[in-house]
Amino acid sequence: MVKHIVLFKLKEFASEDEKARKLHQIQLGLLNLKSIIKELQTIEVGLNKNPKEQYDIALTTTHLTMEDLHAYAVHPEHLAVSKIIREVLESRSCVDYNI
After folding, report:
1. Is the dihedral of CA 33, 37, 38, 41 positive or negative?
2. CB burial readout 32-43, b (16+ within 10 A) else e
3. Tens of pLDDT along 44-61?
4. Alpha-carbon distance 10 to 57, whole Å?
5. Helix (H) and strand (E) counts for the chain?
6. Residue ranges per domain, the chain?
7. What CATH number is given for 2-98 in this structure?
8. Is 4 exposed, middle or buried (0-12, 13-18, 19+ CB in 10 A)?
């Protein structure tokens, strides 16, 4: 089994309300993928509550194989959510490992 962990740091927003709305949109978009993408075993999306830390979102997914992770990554519904993220993304960090 493969665990996929991604951290996202978003660009600055005009207001905290605007940022909160975008974070919620991204969180719901990612969580909805569970019912759509069969190669996605589990998904967890955490929104950072610690203002001293630099990343805004932590995404953790599990997949049976690296091939399943790739299928998830290129799935059209995942790409649609990725587009929303990229529009406001400052930086991203990722690690994939066997569990």
Report:
1. negative
2. ebeeebebbbeb
3. 999 999 989 999 999 999
4. 8
5. 3, 4
6. 2-98
7. 3.30.70.100
8. buried
